[in-house]
Amino acid sequence: MASQEQEGINPRLLINGELVEASDGKTFPIYSPATRKLSALVPEASADDTNAAVAAAKAAFPAWSALDPTKRGACMKKLAGLIRQHNSELAQLEAISMGIPVSNFHYAHTCAFYFDNYAEAWPHIQGQSSVNTPGHVTMTLRQPYGVVALIIPWNAGVHFFGSKAAPALITGNTVVVKSSEKAPLAVARIAELAIEAGFPPGVINILSGHGVPSGQILSRHMDVRCLSFTGSFRTGQLIQEEAARTNLKKVILELGGKSPAIVFDDANLEKAVEQTQKSVQSNSGQVCMANTRIYVQRGVAERFVSAFTKRFAAVKDGDPLAKETNHGPQADEVQYRNVMRYIEQGKASGKLAVGGVGKLESKNGFFIEPTVFLDTPETANIMKEEVFGPVVNINTFDTEDEVIAKANDTEFGLYAAVYTRNINRAMRVAKALESGYVGINCTSPLTGRDLPFGGYKGSGQGREGLLYSMDNFLETKSLIIQIDDE
Ligand code: NAD
């Protein structure tokens, strides 16, 4: 049944410069998680569509990689401008698919920022040379892989489209992007903008659909030489397995987290409360680096918890299309039920301080009250697994050694934060934390724009970032040249 929201939304696949339906006509529905009304029917890319997208990218590669990089950059700049221009429309499409409030949506701007920046980054594509081998000159060439697959999640699809596609394209690769089945609408709109931006057919291909078949086929495709993935630990494992079984394609993995924030008793408590609360409430807790475990030193624990729970309970949930809403629903029913299951486990293992209520019945949408648990044993499931909802565990600690051990007792290692006014302690703890990112007196989602981002341990492999992502999409070839004495 069509709803009002569906009018004018016509997502299609982008294959070889054409916007098309799925070859077998299959679609899947996207419902607004706030209202459960149908937002759109979306093409489910078939095996044939996926193979066609890879074939188109392969055919487009020789000309695209040989093109003057300023011309590659010109298409990218044009796309950046179009994405920025369509910010409100993209915000609305995300709101009616995965529920992010339009007031929180800044991803069109970050996406455009990536396209603008990488459009001008081509002078940094450089090899090196030496005369250290007597009688020879040696050098390296940095060259694109060819067809690169980019598989992105739903929690910030537009952002990841930019952070992955832009560096892959400027380095001369052609791409097949697979959007998430939970949030395909905004990325499908970007497919239309990519045509308007003038990319030659086959350079950017965009598929919508579930992990199987399209994601799985990309992971095992012999013509895909490099695959960059952001998503869950489990899917990362599956992709890595497929790659290992087939052509050992290069795989970059940005996975989940169970990020700790540590608050010592000399910290600026007000700032620590405000920032750690924002971290775990932003995007309704559906952020890989959200500080979902907070450790507070015993002397300030009571004050911290009281201020934190007050702020956490004061969010304004509601229609994500309304400007005043700052807390949207969970992305869909699967996410909702998953988070509610963890909340029930949390009630059994720890002490519920605030929230714990799902509002499916009362609001007819997948809203969950921000939830705080106290004094949960470190061994409990909820302390180990990624919940991906507005749920946080706050525990107390006494000593530095104790809290470092607790913070590191996880298979994840994406982002950690430490709040203290003691610089020596801050640096000791930062060094000891097993984490790809550490915030000192600040926390996620804050990142330095030119720093590498990525995980220790099960949070991933490889790094992304303005100075790092191009490297992910470039092979290195060594040349040795003999100089004859004449
Ligand atoms: P997910 O792993 O379920 O899905 C991610 C993408 O993989 C989707 O496009 C999905 O269709 C595809 N996929 C699913 N099964 C596949 C398969 N068998 N083969 C190939 N592709 C397949 O993750 P999600 O639920 O979309 O996203 C949430 C997860 O992403 C969380 O774990 C979160 O922490 C993580 N994440 C990590 C970062 C980071 O930078 N480290 C950023 C955002 C999100």
UniProtKB/TrEMBL annotation:
<dbReference type="InterPro" id="IPR016161">
    <property type="entry name" value="Ald_DH/histidinol_DH"/>
</dbReference>
<feature type="active site">
    <location>
        <position position="254"/>
    </location>
</feature>
<dbReference type="InterPro" id="IPR015590">
    <property type="entry name" value="Aldehyde_DH_dom"/>
</dbReference>
<feature type="domain" description="Aldehyde dehydrogenase">
    <location>
        <begin position="22"/>
        <end position="478"/>
    </location>
</feature>
<protein>
    <recommendedName>
        <fullName>aldehyde dehydrogenase (NAD(+))</fullName>
        <ecNumber>1.2.1.3</ecNumber>
    </recommendedName>
</protein>
<dbReference type="InterPro" id="IPR016162">
    <property type="entry name" value="Ald_DH_N"/>
</dbReference>
<dbReference type="GO" id="GO:0004029">
    <property type="term" value="F:aldehyde dehydrogenase (NAD+) activity"/>
</dbReference>
<dbReference type="InterPro" id="IPR016163">
    <property type="entry name" value="Ald_DH_C"/>
</dbReference>
<comment type="similarity">
    <text>Belongs to the aldehyde dehydrogenase family.</text>
</comment>
<dbReference type="Pfam" id="PF00171">
    <property type="entry name" value="Aldedh"/>
</dbReference>
<dbReference type="InterPro" id="IPR029510">
    <property type="entry name" value="Ald_DH_CS_GLU"/>
</dbReference>
<keyword id="KW-0560">Oxidoreductase</keyword>
